[in-house]
Specification:
With 311 residues, the chain is mostly helical. It has a single domain (4-308), classed as ADP-ribosylglycohydrolase fold (Orthogonal Bundle), CATH 1.10.4080.10. It contains 15 helices and no strands. The radius of gyration is 17 Å and the shape is globular. 51% of the residues are buried. This is ADP-ribosylglycohydrolase. It comes from Cohnella phaseoli. Its cofactor is Mg(2+).
Length: 311
C-alpha cells in the first residue's frame, strides 16, 4: 500500500475515524480523558474504525474522477446525492453525520434545476469545513496543472457545497500545501511556497484577512489556547496546520488535533491527510489501519484513482 495516494487518503480516513467517537466533546472534557487510540461508540454509537461524511465525500470525489478520468461536476454531484440518500460510500450503508450546509446544497441539487457549482451556499455563514474536508484528491489530480487551472478547478469542486470565497481560499491553501508535500518538500517549505501562491492570487479579495495567521505568521508560535477547533473552515485549517507544525509523527499530529475538541472528526481528517503525506502509511499504527471499515475497498479505490490520473 505504499503510494502517495494511499498515504494521504488512508491518513485522512484514519484521522476521521479516530475523531468520530468524540465529536462535539469539549477541549476541557478531552483534556481529562484524551483520545489515545482507536476507540468506538461515543457520539454516534459506531464501532471502532468507523469514518464519517469527511471520508465518504472524499471517496465519492475519487470515485467520480476514477470513472470519468476528469472532473465532471454533474457526476460528482450525482455521487454526493447517492451518498446522502442511498448510503453510497458509507461505512455500513447509512449516513449518520452530515453538515448543515452540505445537506442544504445536496437538497438543492435534488430539487432544483441548478448547475452543481451553483448549489453551495454563498453567504458568510456558509463557511463550515464541508468542502475542505473532501478536497485532498484534487492535489493528486491537479499537481501538474498551472496555478490558474488549479484554482479554477478547486473553486468549482468546493462550490458544489461551499461557494463563499473563504471556503474556496481555505481549499486552495490546503491543496497547495498538499501538492508541495507530494512533490517532496518538507512541511515548513510547503507552507511557505503556498503563501506565495495564495498571497499573489487572492490579494485583491477582502476575505484574505481571515487567513492572516496562516499567511503572515508562524502558526507554530501560537499557544494552544489561541487555536480554535470549531467547524468554521478557518479554524479547522489553522488547527490542522498547527497540529502538524508542533508534532513529529503521524500519531502525535492526529491525536493532538482531535484532542483540541469540538469538530474532532474533520480536524482529524484534515490533519490526517497531510500527516499521511508527510510520514507515510508505514508510520500509522497497523492496528488502526486494520480496524478501518471497508479498508480493502478503500485500497482498491485508491488504486483505481491512481490508475486514472497521471501522477
Amino acid at each position: 500500500m505504499n503510494s502517495k495516494i494511499m498515504n494521504g487518503i488512508i491518513g485522512l480516513c484514519i484521522g476521521d475515524a479516530l475523531g468520530v467517537p468524540v465529536e462535539f466533546r469539549s477541549r476541557g472534557a478531552l483534556s481529562g480523558h484524551p483520545v489515545l487510540d482507536m476507540i468506538g461508540y461515543g457520539t454516534y454509537n459506531q464501532p471502532p474504525g468507523t469514518w464519517s461524511d469527511d471520508s465518504s465525500l472524499t471517496f465519492c470525489l475519487m470515485d467520480s474522477i476514477a470513472e470519468c478520468k476528469r472532473i465532471d461536476l454533474f457526476d460528482i454531484a450525482d455521487k454526493f446525492k447517492k451518498w446522502l440518500w442511498e448510503g453510497y460510500w458509507t461505512p455500513y450503508g447509512e449516513v449518520f453525520d452530515v453538515g448543515i450546509a452540505t445537506k442544504q446544497a445536496i437538497d438543492r441539487l435534488n430539487h432544483e434545476l441548478i448547475r452543481p457549482d451553483f448549489a453551495g451556499g454563498q453567504d458568510e455563514y456558509s463557511n463550515g469545513n464541508g468542502s475542505l474536508m473532501r478536497i485532498l484528491p484534487l492535489a493528486f489530480l491537479l499537481r501538474k496543472s498551472n496555478v490558474e487551472e488549479r484554482i479554477s478547478a478547486i473553486t468549482q469542486v468546493s462550490s458544489i457545497t461551499h461557494r463563499h470565497m473563504i471556503s474556496i481560499i481555505a481549499c486552495v491553501i490546503y491543496t497547495e500545501v498538499a501538492i508541495n508535500l507530494i512533490d517532496g518538500l518538507d512541511l515548513k517549505t510547503s507552507i511557505n511556497e503556498m503563501k506565495l501562491v495564495v498571497n499573489r492570487h487572492f490579494s485583491g479579495h477582502s476575505e484574505i484577512v481571515q487567513f492572516e495567521r496562516i499567511l503572515n505568521e508562524d502558526l507554530s508560535d501560537i499557544k494552544v489556547n489561541d487555536i480554535h477547533s470549531t467547524g468554521y473552515v478557518v479554524h479547522t485549517l489553522e488547527a490542522s496546520l498547527w497540529s502538524l507544525l508542533t508534532s513529529v509523527s503521524y500519531k502525535e499530529a492526529v491525536l493532538k488535533s482531535i484532542n483540541l475538541g469540538e469538530d474532532t472528526d474533520t480536524t482529524g481528517a484534515v490533519t490526517g491527510g497531510l500527516a499521511g503525506l508527510i510520514y507515510g502509511i508505514e508510520s500509522i499504527p497497523d492496528e488502526w489501519v486494520q480496524q478501518i471499515a471497508r479498508i480493502d475497498e478503500i485500497v482498491e479505490l485508491c488504486r483505481r484513482f491512481e490508475n486514472s490520473i497521471n501522477i
